[in-house]
Amino acid sequence: MKAPAQLVHLEVADQVATITLDSPDNRNALSRSLVRALTGHLTTADARDDVRVVVLTHTGGTFCAGADLAEAVEGGMEEGTRSLLGLLRAVVSLSVPVVAAVRGHVRAGGVGLVGACDIALVTDDSTFAFSESLLGLTPAVISLTTRTRLGERDTAHMYLTGTTFSGSEAATAGLVTASVARDELDSSLADLLAQLRRVSPQGLRETKLLLNRSLALSLDTEGERLVAWSARLFASDEAQEGMTAFRERRSARWTVE
Fold it and tell me: What is the C-alpha separation between 45 and 93, in angstroms, rounded?
């Protein structure tokens, strides 16, 4: 495993701060170390006068697999879930827009991270899933950053079944901004960044504040209740079985084939 400082990289060029998740060995799971490093880089980028926009992207075939299940099984998840809430709040409250650029798999907490971003560009062949219900959990904290992006029927189907859906389906449902062919992602991102760089810094800052007022309030007022809910489920026997079965690549005991 890489040292914490190496799990996430920050580069700044042409008024864009690119933050790259770089822990492909565990599919960029939201370990305590990765969340700490990512939150730190977001804070650093936000403090720089030469940054107009943040791009959040990844190495490897997975953008983010959600919670680090090894940590969850071994030590519980209240601290980890609270750290996730803090990360989502940091993305939402950042003074500049955050753009997700995804070409890979996104699961559980990773979907919540994409939902927190102001704009999300993904490839058609990216895949998404709210996989919590399959493990005896529920997408508690990340519901704050995803339910308002989705219609009620899509939300119910995706949350309850844990089914996998494509980047193009995510765009149709409103979870992400746009889905493009894999070889078009870089050019689409470049076009978007050019548009954002033409906007007044104050215009960007104040418009993001306007757009995210309700979401920021929900994170502040509902977050702790959902952290407690999530931590209770992670500690349950059923969730422990679900996470263990997933790590052992077997069906959970309640699975009906």
Answer: 13
What percent of the chain shows pLDDT beyond 90?
Answer: 88
For the chain, the average pLDDT equals: 94
Rounded CA separation 7/85 (Å): 19
For each of the domains in the chain, give its residue range(s) and CATH number, in order of start.
4-182 (3.90.226.10)
pLDDT for the residue 5: 56
Tell me if residue 107 falls in helix, strand or coil.
Answer: strand
Position with higher pLDDT, 69 vs 201? 201
Whole-Å CA distances, 182 to 103, 114, 129, 188, 226: 7, 18, 19, 10, 35
Spatial contact of 24 and 60, defined as CB atoms under 8 Å apart: yes
Strand 119-123 with 98-102, pairing: parallel
If we measure between CA atoms, which residue out of 52, 62, 53 comes closest to residue 21?
Answer: 62
Q: What is the CA radius of gyration of the chain?
A: 17
Q: How far is the C-alpha of 174 from the C-alpha of 115, rounded, in Å?
A: 10
